[in-house]
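So, is this right?
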Amino acid sequence: MRSIELFSGAGGLAKGLEISGFEHVAYVENNRDACITLRNNFNAKKVFEGDIREYEFDTLSNIDVIAGGPPCQPFSLGGKHKSSSDERDMFPLAIKAVRSLRPKAFIFENVKGLLRPSFSDYFKYILLRLQYPDFNCENSNDWSKNFSLLREFSSNSSTTPEYRVQFQLMNAADYGVSQTRERVIIVGVRSDLNSRWLYPEGKYTQDRLLWDQYVSGEYWEKHKIKKVPEYSHSKHFLRKIETIKKKYGFIPPRSLPWKTLRDVLSNVPNPKAMHQIGDHLFRAGARSYPGHTGSMFDQPSKTIKAGDHGVPGGENMIRFSDDSIRYLTVYEAKLVQSFPASFKIHGAWGEAMRQIGNAVPVTIAEVLGAELKRVLSDNSSQQTNQKYLMRCA
């Protein structure tokens, strides 16, 4: 199945979809370092380095899926919250790609901040534009005016959306990623296809992790740790542990445990030791202070972040049980984002961490890709594709 990656970044979404069986015909990305990363890990000839406004979509045909993560800064909780007035808002370009290529489906990822009440109307407008990409909104640059026109158009009972569009807030930790990372996943499936999109259900829970750690002790046994580390847990965290003990007793939750940093990094050598891992270099200068404490080694990582607003919670640091801290290496951060160990992130530490922090975890992309493949492999969807394209020509 053929797909195109927009706003590709380091290629986390692209890699997960590739593992799921999608063939990428192009990667569109503006950042120079990210483009080098893409060329190092995918077909270099398919990487378009430049402004998406200059990409010629009409050179492509028979695209099954459009995927990508439009820049999140306009909606980030740590950003400037300019929404549609931010020049980095690329959702209009994503909609243009859908209108031009008419894929069977699309999948777009963005930050949780997109669901803020202050962005509510604009988010509804985005969803309507994705449902009706052919609707003519070119007569005015006033999105609010277009929003009114679209609402009136969509309320017509005889109007059938071109795409069935859904969205869901998904936490990567619930899908086996060693990171609590909540992101909005928007999926649209062309209305002429009979298959229905269903968001995959997460199989991993914090309840099971806490049960394994503080009820059965299975977690510590697995890691061959005889004495449970004494972290300086917050009162809120300690209350969670007591709740788990009362809620489940000795009958474990029917789920898998969230993965922790120890689960993913326990076999990685100390960055100060002798090793042959090129991107596993110790970086000095990590500091801890109130609110900037890093990620506990025996919990999933905090959300690895990127952007000019920095990392206010110390998301790029590991905190051990003795409260010592150090920065994650590029290699470690890459594994936390579930990139393959062999994946090469180009750039110095700060630039590499920016790319990793902006990426979609490969594991969750693979989970989403598997469901997309199920939807698009339906026999009836294959039969209707050519008929649809002829109708829309």
Notes: Residues 362-376 form the longest helix (15 residues). The chain has two domains: 2-202+359-392, 204-340.
